[in-house]
Write a structure and sequence with these properties.
The complex is a heterodimer of chains A (114) and B (111). Chain A is mostly beta strands and 114 residues long. Chain A has strands spanning 5-7, 10-13, 19-24, 31-37, 43-50, 53-57, 65-68, 75-79, 88-95, 104-105, 109-113. With 111 residues, chain B is mainly β. Chain B has strands at residues 4-7, 10-14, 19-25, 32-38, 44-50, 54-58, 61-66, 71-76, 85-92, 100-101, 105-110. Classes of the chains: A mainly beta (114), B mainly beta (111). At the A-B interface, strand 4, strand 5, strand 9 and strand 10 of A face strand 4, strand 5 and strand 10 of B.
C-alpha cells in the first residue's frame, strides 16, 4: 500500500531542547496527522492539518507544539522546548481526503527526552 | 468524549483456528470504524474499514458492526503465525477525521 516515511526513527535529546520530527506523506495526499503513543498506552490523536492550517487539535497538543508543511515538503512536528512527558513514539499519517478516507501511517519516531 | 475499549487484551490461538476480537465505543453518532494491525516496531497497517451495520470482508479479515450495541468485531479466518501482532480498533466521525483508538488486542498465533 501507500508508504509514509518518518525521519528519524529514533531521537534522544535533553529536556528543554527543541526537536523537529519529519514526515514524508503519500505524494498526492492532502490531509496530515500526528498521533502520540506513550509506551504501554493507547495511541492518541494530536493534530490534523489541511490546506496549510490546523483543522483540529487535542489537549495533548500543547503550546510548545507546532506543525507545518512548507511548500509541499516534509510535514513536521516541532516541540520547543521539550519536556520529559514528551517521550513517546510519534506517528505521522496522511489521507487523500477527510474522515471517510483511509489514513496511512508511518513507522513512527521514538523520541526520548532525558 | 469518545471512549474505545478492546477485549481481550491478549489472545492466543492455534494456527488455522478463528480469532475473534471485540471493540466497544461510547459515541452512538460515530460513523467510521477501522481495524489496524501493528507488528512490533512497525507502523499501522489498515485491515478493514466499515461504515454501516453488518459485515465487511477483506481477505481473511471480517469486520462486523452493530451500532445499536456499540460493538464492532474483527474475525480473522485461518490465522497464521505471521498474523501475530497488536490489533487496534479506531473510530471516527464523518464530521471530523481524527481517529480514537482502543488499547489493542495482542494476538499470538501458535504454529
Amino acid at each position: 500500500g501507500p508508504k509514509v516515511l518518518q525521519i528519524p526513527s529514533h531521537q534522544i535529546i535533553d529536556m528543554g531542547q527543541m526537536v523537529t520530527l519529519n514526515c514524508d506523506p503519500v505524494s498526492n495526499h492532502l490531509y496530515f496527522y500526528w498521533y502520540k503513543q506513550i509506551l504501554g498506552q493507547q495511541m492518541e490523536f494530536l493534530v490534523n492539518f489541511y490546506n496549510g492550517k490546523v483543522m483540529e487539535k487535542s489537549k495533548l497538543f500543547k503550546d510548545q507544539f507546532s506543525v507545518e508543511r512548507p511548500d509541499g515538503s516534509y510535514f513536521t512536528l516541532k516541540i520547543q522546548p521539550t519536556a520529559l512527558e514528551d517521550s513517546a513514539v510519534y506517528f505521522c499519517a496522511s489521507s487523500l481526503g477527510g474522515s471517510s478516507y483511509e489514513q496511512y501511517f508511518g513507522p513512527g519516531t521514538r523520541l526520548t527526552v532525558l | 468524549q469518545q471512549k474505545v475499549q478492546q477485549s481481550p487484551e491478549s489472545l492466543t490461538v492455534s494456527e488455522g483456528a478463528m480469532a475473534s476480537l471485540n471493540c466497544t465505543f461510547s459515541d452512538r453518532s460515530s460513523d467510521n470504524f477501522r481495524w489496524y494491525r501493528q507488528h512490533s516496531g512497525k507502523g499501522l497497517e489498515v485491515l478493514v474499514s466499515i461504515f454501516s451495520d453488518g459485515e465487511k470482508e477483506e481477505g481473511s479479515f471480517t469486520a462486523h458492526l452493530n451500532r445499536a450495541s456499540l460493538h464492532v468485531f474483527l474475525h480473522i479466518r485461518e490465522p497464521q503465525p505471521s498474523d501475530s501482532a497488536l490489533y487496534l480498533c479506531a473510530v471516527s466521525h464523518n464530521a471530523g477525521a481524527k481517529l480514537t483508538f482502543g488499547g489493542g488486542t495482542r494476538l499470538t498465533v501458535r504454529p
